[in-house]
Amino acid sequence: MKILVVGSGGREHALCWKIAQSPKAEKIYCAPGNAGIEEYAECVPIGAMEFEKLAAFAKENAVDLTVVGMDDPLVGGIVDVFEKEELRIFGPRANAAILEGSKAFSKDLMKKYGIPTAAYENFDDPEKALAYLETADFPIVLKADGLALGKGVLICNNLEEAKEGVRTIMLDKQFGTAGNKMVIEEFMTGREVSVLSFVDGKTIKCMTSAQDHKRALDGDQGLNTGGMGTFSPSPFYTAEVDQFCKEHIYQATVDAMAAEGREFKGVIFFGLMLTPKGPRVLEYNARFGDPETQVVLPRMKTDIVDVFEACIDGTLDQIDLEFADNAAVCVVLASGGYPVSYEKGFPIHGLENFKDRDGYYVFHAGTKKVDGQIVTNGGRVLGVTALGADLKTARANAYEAVKLVDFEKAYCRSDIGKAIDEA
Asked: What range(s) does the ATP-grasp domain occupy (predicted)?
């Protein structure tokens, strides 16, 4: 098969790496790709939002399957464009990707179908939002309705912070049109867990659990980022939690979308909060997580191309989704100043140290090649990932692996997976 992956981050590098392991994958393309992805795929200079160009490329090159990693193209309707051209593509149509594309939609869906989540209200008028805050309990959570690169969530500890948050989202438009509407919801306490799942419209098969670290600095301090590291599995995701989620959240979401005439095929990412009252949905994503993919796929034993095809064909019930009985930890190496302002173009040293080192991986998130040298080209630069027999070993291995690579002004959190010690 000829397979095209759409995207350019660490998630897409992990996807290309995993697809390359399939005996079905004869040729892999990635648009637009990055310097690390070149090892597994031919990078094509077409942007992820250039749907017509991507579809034309897929036709011209007889691509058998396209896999979309990013949220923007999915919400924007890339799947609809490809299907219209009778091209096979893995991912939800635009009317299903709204599960991530609008937080107001997803909250209303959960309320309608009794899927456990935080209490909330939706607002499209900043004055009404400000008036509502006068009667609210704190802390409280403000969410931009649309896509905001994983950064459109503000936790406000008091009324003044919340009012400033409304101004930031709805008036100053810090997250662009994503802030035309917003959700104000109750603040939930507990452990956060991410569960990615494959869906074929009817059947859902969950991947292994993971836990992300969103804040830029140690101790969950600093600004929200796209994710500074992750580990898998989560020791807090017990068999009891899994059973509850299967009964009340996972299948219920797939069935709710089908009932709404929004058949979902692709990946649903369940962001969960394990509250004292039981698991609640924090958020949905309509695609693979980043950096969760970098710890989930190295543990996956099943041929991923078989799974993609089963999701498209509605035969996921025939797939035995298997994961190794081990653990993985990913530490993101970022550019100094991220997530605000940072410099690009610093040479990256030590990437060759990962060659032939079993269980150690370096997934490129923001890199490019200049005159044969791989240099930094983003805020999150590398996802340094390692396996281990258990979480503590994987964590030790991941931080050992971080020492193998370097670039000017690099920084990472030193406490990724520290919660493991409390399990």
From this structure: 107-313
In total, the chain counts a number of residues equal to: 423
Q: Which tokens is 360 given?
A: 């150690």
Q: Which CATH class is domain 119-186?
A: alpha beta
- The H or E element containing residue 217 is strand 215-217
Paired strand residues for 332: 383
**Distance separating the N- and C-terminal Cα atoms of the chain:** 43
327-422: which CATH topology? Glycinamide Ribonucleotide Synthetase; Chain A, domain 4 (3.90.600)
Phi, psi of 15 (to 5 degrees): -65, -45
Going by C-alpha positions, the residue among 81, 70, 26, 80 that lies closest to residue 48 is 70
Give the CATH fold of the 191-318 domain. Answer: D-amino Acid Aminotransferase; Chain A, domain 1 (3.30.470)
**Which residue matches tokens 């027999």?**
389
Torsional class of 265: left (φ above 0), alpha (ψ -120 to 50), beta (otherwise)? beta
Name the nearest CA neighbour of 242 among 279, 293, 214: 279
Residue type, position 279, single letter: P
Average pLDDT across each block of 10 residues of the chain; the chain has 423 residues. List them in order. Answer: 97 98 98 97 98 98 97 97 98 98 96 96 95 94 88 91 95 93 95 97 98 94 92 97 97 98 98 96 96 98 98 98 98 96 97 93 97 96 98 97 97 93 74
- The sign of the CA dihedral 169, 174, 180, 181 is negative
pTM, to two decimals: 0.95
Q: Retrieve residue 372's tokens.
A: 């044969």
Strand-pairing partners, residue 4, are 29, 66
Q: Three-state SS for 218? A: helix
